[in-house]
Structures are given as structure tokens and as C-alpha cells.
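Q: What residues go here?
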């Protein structure tokens, strides 16, 4: 149900279009472009909406025009199968006023690498209450309603309902409604303390603002507006305020969590140490006293973004290597991953060979750009929520990465430190990797990378096992 602003296919085609324009005469380096579309089960995919079999939530919602008396509804976990699950709600036997709307239904959800999805068949419930605006082009067989908390939450935002990982700058556009005629644009605007009856002491919550539009329905002003939702880590949504369109006295629908048996957790850090946004660009200088007598200077820019994936283009500014390259990255709950790379270059210097020995020489990688040095070895580049002490390994179990690089080793986040480079001083995340490529000392050694919020890589030092040192610094 995602309204796409681009596709990974178009990103890849753009890469080849860029490279094909180059009049260079050297080898092309290509990494396979594998795209995982199936829903997978990352280790912490459900922390923003836990759903153990005994989980319960009780909400109370009101509408300032159509339901001014609070309506209480209980939500439970009806069924779980793998990464998919069903949440059922009911207003029956919840102590509601006899004139309160009756709502009984189920919503179908799934954990995925890109967030919480509302999956087919979507939802099922009794009909919308009489007297509420008609959210379809005709009254007959209208499958739309906003008469429940979960209907309010998935309205216009089905895939995903909540995008993950949830980092500063996260935004997404989706569609919804029975006829897919409801569109929305959502932004994560930060974390703030929130108080609801379930948690009388303030708890930190992620605040999501969604601009929602429905056109063509009889009650489309009611189906349009601005919805703000607060999500608590370890609990799920705890408050929602939908300001409908329609002028000064337009309705406002509010839902708050009254009680739950789920316990709030401290939310993960939301700093983005590798932003995939078209505003990100810069210039790197790469030196190696033994192999690069003259510094190599290259510019880069994030020039295409789609659904959490991006293309970064690189081109030479000065130095002994004339290169044009592009790299594909994706951000999911399994981290920031390099999924493909392509380059074309002509070099006046001869760099030491890289392995692995299992590949013919024509298919082995080369260091031509700082991004080659940064992505070399194994994925992920960073975890979804980077934190000090996080560690991951490379080796035969890494599948595609080991086939390409033949590298074993370990990467560890050592913490956040100040680092100064020509572009400025940054509080940077320090990531250290020990890399071993059998039989190739230039492909072995210790690599330390510094990543700064909103800028990405600002410094890299690769101490190769041949005794040389590659140093990359952000110039501007």
C-alpha cells in the first residue's frame, strides 16, 4: 500500500546511467543488488508494539462532535503466526453508556524490517456507527470507519503504520482506506514526555505527526486532517489526537490509553549517524603515504532516496585516480547495509591486490573511493540503533558478503568521542573493525570509522597489515 516516490529498480538504472557516461578505461566493480521484500523477524522488531499472547490495552476515545461521551474499548492479542499477529478490540462489557457506539473488530499486523505493517486482509469489524460521516463515495458497502482506536491509527498509514528504525529525520508516505483513497505523509518529530491514565507519571514517547488526505468520499473533510500519535517503547500507542479538516468547529477525535499490562522501556537512541537524505553531500580527502603519494580528493552526494534506500554517487575532484562510482545503501531493523556498488576508474597508481583467492582476479574488489574502504568486509555498516558495546562478526556465515570479500573479523562500537577534521569538530560514533583477508595483507588490518549525526562518515583510519595507513577525512 506504499505510495512510492521511486523504486530500487530505478535507483539501480540510474547508477548504470551515471557510469555509462564515463569515458574511462578500467575495470567496473559491481556488487549484486539483492532486495529483500519479504517480511522478516528482526530481534527487536516488536519493541514499539509488543504483542505477547496475554497483552491487553484499554483505550478511551471521544469525538468532539459525533461521540462526546468517552467510549471504552479493550484490545487483546487474538492470534500470532510468525511475524504476523492480530489485535482484537471490543466495546462490549466495558461499562460504556448505552448510547455509545458499539465497535467490535480485528486489525491484521506484522513486524517487518521496515516497521509495523497493516497487512491483508487489513481489518474487519461491524459497520460504522449511524450518524458518523460516510468515508466512502457511497453509503452502500462502505468499508471505512474511524470508530475505534486502531481504525484511527491505521487510517491512511497502513504500510508502514510506524516506520522503523525510528531516527531523527524519519518520514514516510503511505496510503490506506478500503479503496486505497486515503494518503498520508508522516514525520517523526522527536521524543517528549507524555502523561495518560495508564501512566500517571510521565513516560518518554515518540511523537508522530501525520498529514492525512481523503478525496472523493461523502465525508472526506472528516477523513482528512492532522493526526498526532504518541508511541511508548515497550507498550505501543498511548495517545492519538486527530484534528479533522472542516474549519473552526471541525471535529477532534482523541484516544488515550487507560490501562495495560505492558511495561514502558527506555527508548533507543534516535541519532542518525548515517543519514540517507538528499541534503547530504561533501568532499573527502584520502591519503596513504606508501601507496598514494598525492592525496586523492573525491566528492559525494546522496542523490536518490526511496523507501529507506538510497544511492550515493562519488566522483574524483583531484588526485591520481579518476573515478566515478555509486553505492546503494538500505536502512532496516537489521542495520544500515551496503547492498550494491559500481564504479569505473582509471588510475595512475598501482594499489596492492585484494582477495579473496576464491575469486578470479577480474572479479575482486579494489579500493578506489572512501566508500570502498568504509564498506569493505561485511555488513551491517551500523546497527539500526547504534549503542556503545554493540558488536557483530564477519565470516562464512555472512553469505553474500563472505563470497564477495572473503573477510573474517569483528566490529565493535566503542562509544562517542570528539573528533576534529578539516570540516569541523564532531561528537562522533566510533566503530572499530578487525579484518582478516587470508593471503592479502592490504585487505587485512584494523579500521576505525567515525560517524557524526546528520553528516555520516567524517573520518576513517585503516591500518593495513602491510604496514601502510589509509586516512580519510571530511574536508567540507
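A:
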Amino acid at each position: 500500500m506504499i505510495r512510492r516516490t521511486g523504486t530500487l529498480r530505478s535507483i539501480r538504472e540510474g547508477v548504470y546511467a551515471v557510469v555509462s557516461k564515463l569515458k574511462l578505461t578500467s575495470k567496473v566493480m559491481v556488487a549484486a543488488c539483492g532486495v529483500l521484500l519479504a517480511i522478516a523477524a528482526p530481534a527487536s522488531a516488536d519493541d514499539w508494539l509488543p504483542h505477547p499472547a496475554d497483552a491487553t490495552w484499554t483505550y478511551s476515545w471521544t469525538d468532539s462532535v459525533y461521540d462526546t461521551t468517552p467510549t471504552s474499548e479493550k484490545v487483546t492479542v487474538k492470534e500470532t503466526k510468525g511475524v504476523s499477529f492480530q489485535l482484537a478490540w471490543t466495546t462490549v462489557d466495558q461499562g460504556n453508556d448505552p448510547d455509545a457506539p458499539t465497535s467490535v473488530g480485528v486489525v491484521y499486523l506484522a513486524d517487518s524490517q521496515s516497521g509495523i505493517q497493516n497487512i491483508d486482509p487489513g481489518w474487519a469489524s461491524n459497520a460504522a456507527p449511524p450518524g458518523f460521516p460516510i468515508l466512502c463515495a457511497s453509503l452502500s458497502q462502505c468499508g471505512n470507519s474511524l470508530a475505534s482506536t486502531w481504525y484511527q491509527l491505521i487510517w491512511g498509514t497502513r504500510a508502514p503504520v510506524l516506520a522503523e528504525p525510528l531516527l531523527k529525520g524519519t518520514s514516510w508516505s503511505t496510503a490506506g482506506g478500503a479503496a486505497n483513497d486515503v494518503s498520508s505523509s508522516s514525520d517523526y518529530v522527536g521524543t517528549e514526555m507524555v502523561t495518560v491514565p495508564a501512566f500517571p507519571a510521565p513516560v518518554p514517547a515518540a511523537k508522530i505527526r501525520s498529514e492525512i488526505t481523503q478525496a472523493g468520499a461523502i465525508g472526506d473533510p472528516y477523513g482528512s486532517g492532522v493526526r498526532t500519535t504518541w508511541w511508548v517503547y515497550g507498550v505501543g500507542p498511548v495517545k492519538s489526537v486527530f484534528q479533522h479538516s472542516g474549519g473552526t468547529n471541525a471535529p477532534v477525535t482523541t484516544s488515550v490509553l487507560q490501562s495495560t499490562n505492558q511495561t514502558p522501556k527506555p527508548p533507543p537512541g534516535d541519532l542518525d549517524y548515517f543519514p540517507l537524505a538528499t541534503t547530504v553531500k561533501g568532499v573527502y580527502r584520502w591519503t596513504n603515504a606508501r601507496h598514494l603519494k598525492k592525496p586523492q580528493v573525491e566528492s559525494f552526494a546522496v542523490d536518490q532516496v526511496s523507501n529507506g534506500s538510497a544511492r550515493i554517487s562519488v566522483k574524483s575532484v583531484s588526485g591520481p585516480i579518476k573515478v566515478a562510482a555509486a553505492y546503494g545503501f538500505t536502512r532496516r531493523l537489521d542495520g544500515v547495509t551496503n547492498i550494491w556498488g559500481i564504479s569505473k576508474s582509471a588510475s595512475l597508481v598501482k594499489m596492492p591486490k585484494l582477495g579473496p583467492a576464491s575469486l578470479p582476479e577480474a572479479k575482486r574488489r579494489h579500493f578506489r573511493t572512501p566508500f570502498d574502504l568504509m564498506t569493505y568486509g561485511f555488513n551491517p555498516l551500523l546497527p539500526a540503533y547504534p549503542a556503545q558495546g554493540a558488536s557483530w562478526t564477519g565470516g562464512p556465515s555472512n553469505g553474500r558478503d563472505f563470497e564477495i570479500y572473503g573477510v573474517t573479523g569483528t566490529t565493535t562500537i566503542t562509544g562517542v568521542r570528539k573528533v576534529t577534521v578539516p570540516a569541523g569538530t564532531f561528537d562522533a560514533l566510533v566503530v572499530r573493525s578487525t579484518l582478516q583477508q587470508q593471503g592479502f595483507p592490504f585487505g587485512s588490518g584494523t579500521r576505525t570509522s567515525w560517524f557524526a549525526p546528520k553528516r555520516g562518515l567524517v573520518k576513517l583510519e585503516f591500518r593495513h597489515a602491510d604496514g601502510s595507513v589509509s586516512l580519510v577525512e571530511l574536508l567540507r
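A: Context that may help when evaluating the design: The helical segments are 8-20, 149-154, 370-375, 400-405. The two ends are 39 Å apart (CA to CA).
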